[in-house]
Amino acid sequence: QVQLVESGGGLVQPGGSLRLSCASSGSIFSISDMGWHRQAPGKQREVVARIRSGGSTDYADSVKGRFTISRDNAKKTVYLQMNSLKPDDTAVYYCRMEAPLPAWGQGTQVTVSS
Q1: 78, 80, 41, 76: which is closest to 59 by C-alpha?
Q2: Which of 2, 67, 60, 10 is nearest to 31 (CA)?
Q3: Deepest of 27, 33, 64, 114, by most Cβ within 10 A of its Cβ?
Q4: Which tens digit of pLDDT belongs to each residue from 18-66?
Q5: Distance (Å, rounded) from C-alpha 4 to C-alpha 12?
Q6: Using CA atoms, how far apart are residues 106 and 86, in angstroms rounded to an integer?
Q7: Mode of pairing for the β-strands spanning 10-12 and 108-112
Q8: Which residues lie below 8 Å from residue 106, measured CB to CB, with a gap of 6+?
Q9: Of 46, 48, 73, which is closest to residue 58 (Cα–Cα)?
């Protein structure tokens, strides 16, 4: 069973930046497809960004050009660099192992407010 632990959330002003981290247990991280999802109050959970084991990435249209997903296989960690944050980015952000063993992290709160 894989465990995912997120960190790096917090309160930031509009236009600011945050970097989220997600550390994975186990030995399959390097062959795993990883993703970041978010859920705002009253809304469905949505995918924000994905990175495949080979390094290719996909982004939601709402974050393209502002967010960057990356990974460090040696540290078994996936990152989400978030720049030019907007109040609409406020949500709980979840790390997910998409494949081969689907798993969710516990989530970290990101609040964008002045």
Answers
A1: 80
A2: 2
A3: 33
A4: 999 999 998 999 999 999 999 999 999 999 999 999 999 999 999 999 9
A5: 24
A6: 23
A7: parallel
A8: 4, 5, 6, 94
A9: 48
Structure tokens at 7: 């960190």
Here the tokens at position 87 are 């109040």
User: What pLDDT, on the 0 to 100 scale, is given for residue 26?
Assistant: 87
Pairwise CA distance, residues 73 & 93, whole Å: 21
User: Could you report the per-residue pLDDT of 4-14, keeping only the tens digit for each?
Assistant: 999 999 999 99
Task: For residues 45 and 91, give the distance between their C-alpha atoms in angstroms, rounded to a whole number.
Answer: 9
Q: Among all chains, which residue has been given the structure tokens 């469905």?
A: 44
> Which two three-digit tokens encode residue 20?
């989220």
Cβ–Cβ under 8 Å, residues 69 and 56: no
Peptide bond between residue 41 and the one before it cis (omega within 30 degrees of 0): no
φ/ψ (deg, to 5) at 91: 180, 170
